[in-house]
Amino acid sequence: MFTANRSNPSIERTSPGKPGAASHVKREGAMNIWISAIAAVAVQPLVFLLRVLPDYLSSPQPLYEVGLMVVAVVAVGAAVVLVLGIPAFLALRRFRREGWGSLGAAGALLGALPRASSWPRTLEGYSAGQNWHGNYIETYVNGTPTTYAWLTYAESVLLFALHGLVGALVFYGVWRSRQRPNQSFQPTAFGGD
């Protein structure tokens, strides 16, 4: 309901019931977004561990650096969710496009963005190789990126996009579940209450 204030002719928003009810709804909405963002970041180590599980199981050597990588995954995930993810969600929400498809696509795009920005470049005099799916490959020969360098780049961009997609879908699931009223104590047709 809108009312005109006699001392100030501007229009102000009032809400029936308790004073401050509108600000409570805004705080609750913001809290739902933050809880959803925390869930989106918290799922990232699980995605990472599922990604490295085949390598870990097939490796004769223990992977000691996995713990450090989990911390790095959480740090990068938190930065991407905070700087890109929440503003993207708010923009989609403003245009009433906050469905699972649009959030999933935005999450995949924003997840891939940090890795996609560092593509293979020519590095004079540089040669390198790596193990890729059990085979040794040369990624740079005399400073020129090989086809394998581009394939490993594309694979890593897709894996980052997977992180973004899973994070966005978890965000959406948590956000939607927190938007619904709690009906756990409501009588049901088969509950007998």
Automatic annotation (TrEMBL):
The chain crosses the membrane at residues 33-54, 66-92, 99-117, 157-175. Residues 1-23 are annotated as: Disordered. Keywords: Membrane, Transmembrane, Transmembrane helix. Residues 1-13 have a biased composition (Polar residues). This is DUF4199 domain-containing protein. It comes from Ideonella azotifigens.
